[in-house]
Amino acid sequence: RNGIYPLMNFAVSRPHALPRALSQPQEDPQKAKTPTPEPFDVETRKVVQMQCNMELNEDKSQWHLTLLLILEDKLHRQLSYDLLPTDNSKDLATELVHYGFIHEDDCEKLATFLESAFHKHRSQA
């Protein structure tokens, strides 16, 4: 009887007012919690194969890294990142361990792999 959207006829004509709190409770400064960073999951699978591709961006000012990792259970993990001039392979590998993308035992292996890829692609440019 009211058409295709009958619930539209029952919309409130004005929004409800929210009750205001009379006073805000004061927190004890010693009980106030500081924000703690979220814990990241630890990767338990090891990397069995790595592939890396580096390309210069359109304006030729920055390298774009695409990393394909194949883990023990055949999971493919593709990561991409715009490299900064200050980035190095060891820090990138350590960061991937920190955020749970690779197993801690693969850190050194990935750092060595990235270092060789950096030298190869930057020498071609």
Automatic annotation (TrEMBL):
Region (Disordered): 18-43
Superkingdom as given in the UniProt entry: Eukaryota
Protein name: NRBP2 protein
Organism: Urocynchramus pylzowi
Source lineage: Eukaryota, Metazoa, Chordata, Craniata, Vertebrata
